[in-house]
Amino acid sequence: MSNSIRDIKGAIFDLDGTILDSMHIWSDIGLLFLKNKGIEAPEGIEDEFVKMSMVQAAEYYIKNIDPTATVMDIVNEVNSLVQGFYFNEVIKKDGTKEFLEFLKNRNVKMCVATATDKHLVEKALERNGIREYFSEIFTCGSVGAGKDSPVIYDVALKHLGTPKENTFVFEDALYAIETANKAGYNILGIKDVSEKADPETVKKLCNYYINDYSEIYDFFE
Question: Is the pLDDT of residue 51 over 80?
């Protein structure tokens, strides 16, 4: 892909690990949920949970562990486990606000596309002083698909109304980057310590790749 970020008109931002320093909470939440139920976690299940939307993870739990549970009950319980973190603790990644202001000054339209439930996102963005930069927050729950499908990016793109060739998806997770890449999106990959994939593998799927936001401005020169 050869589209230049200097011509960016639209930006679709992932949340956890991209805007907020929050992926660690999701790395452990599935295991904590199971522990609270007195259930021994199957080997490798945390790697599966982190790739799923909340609803997908709930459906997986019902199918494989407890068929008497309901999706809504599971979603509510998980949200209750992470709510304090999003409401009171989570911080934005270094340089995030400065970069969002930079894009705003270039008249770039911005929205969020995330697997995290909207009420948690709203509170976290507001508390970190960056809610104003995003015209809308799209969640996997609201669009009815996880990031193993490009639906959330397509919905976000339609909302922004910007040309696809001038719109960039900002993501940290390999599986989501793979989805966006297959769907023909421009991608700026952001390093996060929670992503275990080889950075070189991630870089090959991205138009651009940064370790943190301080590196991004070089691409606009």
Answer: no
